[in-house]
Amino acid sequence: MPVCMLVRCCRAKLSVWAALCVLVLCWFYVFPGYRLPADKEIAEEVLRHGEAWRKNQTGIDLYRKLLTECCDPRRMFAVTKENSPLGKVLWYDGEFYYSHTVNNETYQLFVQDNPLTLPLKKCAVVGNGGILRHSKCGKDIDQADFIMRCNLPPLSKEYVEDVGTITHLVTANPSIIEKRFQNLLWSRKDFVDSMKVYGSSYIYMPAFSMKPGTDPSLRAYYALADSSSNLTMLFANPEFLHMVGKFWKARNVHARRLSTGLFLVSLALGLCEEVTVYGFWPFSVGLDEQPVSHHYYDNILPYKWVHAMPEEFVQLWHLHKSGTLRMRVGRCPSQDGVS
Q1: Which residues cross the membrane (predicted)?
Q2: For residue 155, is pLDDT > 90?
């Protein structure tokens, strides 16, 4: 066999083996080696555990230490003038081949440094799960010292009893600006008016996570600034989001991207003395075996293959059982002195 043909044959075999290796790696990334419990098993485990919970200060301190070492939430959770000076390159955490170099226009939009008064005491992270419907958790949530909510949820009168009224920080995905408010390319009044329900809270937007989200985020900033709104815009630091993603991937949360809720729980674990989580239930059936809508306000499902919410729930449930955080699943106790 001529040498050139032998070389081509070897190259072809190497290419096939390389392709097979890539496929195997992708398989283990999407379908990890451990077995996630079935929905029914998880529900049975939650029911067995019941309402029993005991705060574990050692676990709380450990997770705060781990998150500080990996992600430094106190300094890095938001883009600030202190951590992102002029000329700094912000690499998009959702699209690693895109970046934004901080210039005079964007630099002036950043807060000086972490605006939160630390340490935060009792924090509530409120997801949007349908499990909140008829939960009667509103008063329980509003008693927290710092309340975080996900993706501009409705807080209208019909939901107040279940989700409360107070907000200190709320996330806003750029896709919401695109779909609900037509990218703010026309009237901005509807957007500004809808933000009033969040009082004088912080709006936390991932402006530098995906390139298509940058312009809508900046338009949202200017819409609020031009209307003299009481809200303060914070842009999520893509370096922080990237490191939090790596943190949870090392703990068996395999997804293209973490849910907004898990990002907020991570932030709370890094900043708060005590964390209680509400509205996290990514299953279509509740503990009473009745159907549960995806959100407390609608049943629009997320895109497949983006999040791994059952995996996230399992990890958070482990933290609940260890006393590191508290998860409220189902109805909250009545406000008669029962905790």
Answers
A1: 12-31
A2: yes
